[in-house]
Amino acid sequence: MALLQTKYAGLTLRNPIIIASSGLTDSLEKIKDLERAGAGAIVLKSLFEEQILMRSEELMNMSDAYPEAYDYINEYVRVNDINNYLNLIRETRQYCSIPIIASVNCYDMGSWARFAREIEAAGADAIELNILRISTKIDEKYGLYEQLHIDILKSVKKEVKIPVTVKLGQRFSNVVSMVNQLKANAADGVVLFNRFYQPDIDIHKLQFMSGTVFSCSTDFCNTIRWIGIVSGQIPDMTLAASTGIHEPEAVIKALLAGASAVEICSVLYQHGNAIISQMLSVLDEWMQVMGFDSIDEFRGKMNFSNVGDQSHYERVQFMKYFSNRD
Hints:
Keywords: Flavoprotein, FMN, Oxidoreductase, Pyrimidine biosynthesis. InterPro entries: Aldolase_TIM, DHO_dehydrogenase, Dihydroorotate_DH_1_2, Dihydroorotate_DH_cat. This is Dihydroorotate dehydrogenase-like protein. Pathway: Pyrimidine metabolism; UMP biosynthesis via de novo pathway. It comes from Coprobacter tertius. The protein has about 325 residues and is α/β, with parallel strands linked by helices. It has a single domain (about 5-320), classed as TIM Barrel (Alpha-Beta Barrel). Helix content is about 40%, strand content about 15%. The protein has 11 helices and 13 strands. Strand 1 (about 5-10) and strand 2 (about 10-15) form a beta hairpin. Helix 4 crosses helix 5. It is globular and about 50 Å long.
């Protein structure tokens, strides 16, 4: 059997399969099941800043509290949610041996840095920052969205010694530059990419509705492109590939492109925990056939700096294959 161990964000994983933050990782029993199924690490269900604020507003609306009481109610809800989250970390750390990564979902500076120390003290092995915010103001200056990532990362890094990673969305004008800035500000790893909520419209009821909840395998093309480009340009930044990883072969492709690990979610909802062992089995068999004893022997072998023709990662190939089609 080949050695499937890998290192990501300073953590040693028994294999490169990380379970992404979701409802699948919101309880001890679910997490224990995922560990038994073969997961290499777990990202706990995110603690949502936006959700905390919404609950605070609901309590205000349901009560006769004065507006001045909003800060008190908001802090009460926040502390209660934080305490529940800390308890999940402690329980999981007690009963699970694989790395446990806390996930914080925020859209502004907030007070997450203040709670980062508590997350570390509770036993989390790392913190993953999910910064979900879409720029919709016409007068917002260029670069504020990118700077927000840097500012939140810096504020959290000041408070903790455990690794801190950033899970990026896909809406950046220069992904490589963004990752390089995160590296310069001591990010321990980057996940490419986060999948935002997808809106849709019911044309008969004239109402908004949720779009497609799960990713699909075609989403992986964008993930593998940027994993390959970023790992080729910034080789000393550990990357995790996320979004569109549905087939076992996608795990191999992500590693060849330069990822140190992959985060999976949608495929677990669709096929159950058994897909983890299937992915690991295919990876192991492929490594043996190809003569690789460890992941380090082939990781990044097909990234931007190691392929002879870098246009494979660029748009020019589209013209080559489709310009002559009727």
